[in-house]
Amino acid sequence: MSEQTICTDTIKLNIGPHHPATHGVFRLETELDGEVVVNSRPILGYLHRGIEKIAENLTYNQIIPYFDRLDYLSGFLNEYPFVSAVERLMGIEVPKKAQYLRVLMMELNRIAAHLVNIGAQGLDLASMTSMVYCMREREYLLELFVAVSGSRMTFNWMRVGGVKSDLPEGFLSRVDRFIHYLKDRMPEYASLMQDNEIFQARTKGIGILRPDHALELGCSGPLLRGSGVARDIRMDEPYEVYDELEFKVITHDECDSFARYMVRYDEISQSIRIIEQILSKIPDGDIMAKVPKVIKPPEGDIYSRVEAPIGELGVYLSSDGKNKPHRMKIRAPSFSNIRAVPDMIKGLQVPDVIATFASVAPTMGEADR
Amino acid sequence: MGKGIVEMGLKESRTLDPAISDGKGSVFLTSVDWLIAWGRKNSLWPLTFATACCAFEMIHAWMPRYDFDRLGSFFRPTPRQCDVMIVAGTITKKMAEPTRLLYDQIPHPKWVLAMGACACSGGPFIDSYSVVKGVDKVIPVDVYIPGCPPRPEALQFGMTQLQKKIMATKRNLGRNHV
Amino acid sequence: MSEIIELIKEKIVVEVEEMPKGEPGLKIRVDNDKLINTLKSLRGIGYNYMTMLTAKCTDDSFDAVYLLDDWTHKRRIWVYTEVNVDNPSIPSITPSWLAADYLEREVYDMFGIEFEGHPNLTRILTPEGFNQYPLRKEFKETD
């Protein structure tokens, strides 16, 4: 061959905003050298609905439904930081029974969200069976949610000072039956996904995120725990009744997509363990504290957080003494986690980009607000 | 059949023109019309277009319990292979242009279902500065399905109403769409 | 609690206040020119996780609000700095702390506060062609 140099150039490939992976409207502009990603740039904002501006014109209880629509898979977990921020500003003590009910529904919701994320991770690797199985389980959970709050997905159930309604009759035995059913199903998912050598070949070693880099970027949730950092708000800064419950913080050290999948899979088992403890411990009592008719928190700033299935979801509330918030900011875990994506996919091929993104599993409703 | 469609409050779309039929078509052509409409309604392939929360109710509709595969429809990721576009979720101003592009890329005959309050009229985000107040400002809509989010049973009712609308279309042979 | 207050007072010469009851963090307020050194010193003391970066409107100007967490010792600190409304511009912490990358872009998008030194200060959430700042109190929707 002569010394002629062949002129090569990179091509720009646009992944999104409409693409079949079920993570919402997200656009990733990648620069490819052949099939390998050289550079990439996430573009957000396709689902920016202006929730923070809308909230400045609504009273506190009117804002709660907007929180369900942030990470639409985990409605109960989204409502919690907002009501807890208002309660702490006003010094309201939530009754013990309401705290237990909140934790019960939050853990059931965590199972529902993790089932979708596991199933979607399989679906993005072309295993349609995983999605179908996980959604089948999720239907039973949605029936439980309808029984408690009236809606399958957008619950509007928590209120400042407690919860809206008590559990219906026979609910706890239904939860118990569901837990037993799910425990029998977990080995089925294991054989379909983590014991499957195609799944392992597609996810092991793909999408490495080192722990120090993840901490520098402000990542949280399974993204951080899949890199070996044992950080879980339920253990580090316990809220509601988590200090009375026993559970383990799941970490895996491999820093790849397989580790993040295993974190979610094992967290389902931990949630089952928490729910079994709660079922025997729910006390009798009120479901709502004594709250004034018009909610007017005193002046001040506060930040309240929850361990959502994607990471740390927080609400910053700045009140000026009126019945509408002066400034409400939502600290969205997906927004910070997406910042890690360009660093994780450098040097990977295009199908691995999809596999990595599926393991990060952001929700656009939350990233864009 | 006409009365049922009026009760749903459907908007006239450019692909449907039942008024043109003067009832004087031949027996052969009306049977072929019926056959084509029957074939179309039983194999509606939707586009995987989902922005927000309604996406998950739409996904649940295709999953084991509600199983819309028995209606003959299954998702296609590319607009070139679809007939129907189910707009599930809020359409923001930034997303309006991609929505229009996707709609234009679907070959005729095509239909649109606006699923959920956000796609019908802006929904809970109607006061927002960055939300398009209803997807019918961007693309023509055939069936509106209210709800926030609508249950899969409501989506099923919307699909069957769309099927009735398709059966009511005359002059299916040839290019009668704009 | 008091040792950390003493340590902060010694490293960053500033008054440390308490937040309202219910909020466990400490609060300090600094000027724009001391902001970067303050954040770097706090990071050195142990507050090495940037949880939140936002801004809010006060009566006559903006306040940029930073929230840093120290998970090893389970404590957090708020850093407030006032931003002039006529020429809203403060130095950017992104070159030394990558967590602030998207957060500062969002504050620029919503309030119009410019961060000097940010590698890519462009709009992130609002559509292209949108030339207003939605979260300012005087924003009115035009259509």
Description:
The complex is a heterotrimer of chains A (369), B (178) and C (143). Chain A is an alpha+beta fold and 369 residues long. Chain A has a single domain (50-368), classed as Cytochrome-c3 Hydrogenase, chain B. Chain A is built from 15 helices and eight strands. Chain A has a three-stranded antiparallel sheet with strand order 1-2-3, with no helix packed on it. In chain A, strands 6-7-8 form a three-stranded antiparallel sheet. In chain A, strand 4 (158-159) and strand 5 (162-163) form a beta hairpin. Chain B has a domain at 46-65 and 79-167: Rossmann fold, CATH 3.40.50.12280. The longest helix of chain B is centred in the last third of the chain and has 16 residues, at 152-167. Chain C has helices spanning 2-11, 35-45, 100-111, and strands at residues 16-18, 26-30, 49-57, 62-70, 75-83, 89-91, 114-116. Chain C is α/β, with parallel strands linked by helices and 143 residues long. Chain C has three helices and seven strands, in the order H-E-E-H-E-E-E-E-H-E. Helix content of chain C is 23%, strand content 29%. The chains are: A alpha+beta (369), B alpha/beta (178), C alpha/beta (143). At the A-C interface, helix 8, strand 6, strand 7, strand 8 and helix 12 of A face strand 3 and helix 3 of C.
Keywords:
heterotrimer, A: 369 residues, alpha+beta, Cytochrome-c3 Hydrogenase, chain B, three-stranded antiparallel β-sheet, 15 helices, globular, C: 143 residues, alpha/beta, Beta Polymerase, domain 2, five-stranded mixed β-sheet, two-stranded parallel sheet, 3 helices, 7 strands, 23% helix
Q: Class of chain A, according to the CATH hierarchy?
A: Mainly Alpha
- Overall 3D shape of chain C: globular
The spatial strand order of the largest sheet of chain A comes to 1-2-3
Distance between the termini of chain A: 56 Å
Number of domains of chain A: 1
CATH topology of chain A: Cytochrome-c3 Hydrogenase, chain B
Structural class of chain A: alpha+beta
The count of DSSP E runs of length 2 or more, i.e. the number of strands of chain C, is: 7
CATH topology of the domain at 2-92 in chain C: Beta Polymerase, domain 2
Judging from the principal axes of the Cα atoms, what is the shape of chain A?
globular
